[in-house]
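Feature request disguised as a bug report, sorry. It would help if multi-protein outputs had a clear separator. Right now it looks like this:
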Amino acid sequence: MTYSAFVIVVRDEMKKMGKGEEFTIQLGHLLDRVVFAALNFFDKEIEDNDKRVNLNVSSERELPVSFLLTVYSLALNCCVDERINILFDVLEREEKARIGGYLPGKSLPEDVVLNIIQYFQLSCQLPPQTQVMPKPDAKYPVQTYRRAGPKDMIEKYREGNGSSDTSTYDIEDFRKIICSPEVCAWGECYSKQRKY
């Protein structure tokens, strides 16, 4: 689905709520900027020398619906637990539709969780601290770093929490990962109320 088609669907659904034409997406301008910045990342290719080459940025590019929903979560006027529940439910339904209807229990496969973490990363919803990994082979004369990917963040989460490898995640596992210091979506790892 393209971003413009997504916005049209969201606005049509909002109109059905009966609040009229003036009822719009809060922070809609922010969503536009986040999506266009993420399109830059989608459209860049990393070469061997770590230079990034801009290929083609277009608002009419087909994007995963789960990415668009992850970006849209920025504008939801609800608490973090509700955001996580909404994302989980939508992702679970999307995955069930994709594979033909069966998922064990209420769970998401690891590749879906990795994609969501990547979408949080692309839409700048993760703090910089979670995205820095030291390069093990580049310590002398100065330690160098690279940008962590979703797999790196999940591995750090597993190491820090003594979790074993798993191929599926239920809602509580998903919540713990998203709010953990290793991922920290929406800055939730800084919340004093949560102790994950």
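(second protein starts here, but nothing in the output says so)
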Amino acid sequence: MDQYSSRIAKEVLEKFKMKGWNLYRSVIASPKTETDTFFFSPPGDIIRYNLTQHLELGRSYVMLPAVNDPRNPGQVFGALEKVAQKLDRKIQTINLKGIDYPFTGITLEKNGVKIHCPEGIRTTYSALIEALDSLVQAS
């Protein structure tokens, strides 16, 4: 099993970019009081502030289509609409070992990658890099 390294992280990011996708750090904010619950950052804020240039261990990332201004929510959501039309309004999938899984992003772990999908699949870095070929070309 391959392990996390900055070289592998760079290769994963480049593969997403080759398929026309950007990765944004997905942030969960901590509760402010004992009665608060955890919440996700609003999508517009993720787009404006969390475009990533390098991937880090333990971080979660969401994939969104690459556009001219990747920090402009309007452009990103417009491109996402075009991808949705390409996919006949079905969710993007990734093919791992012949099985298609819904796919919205990844979390980098020491010994592999967690695929963001209902099944919570984990795979190796090399299997992820190969499977990224199955993504629809976003841009």
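Even a blank line would do. Unrelated, but nice: The chain has a mean pLDDT of 88.
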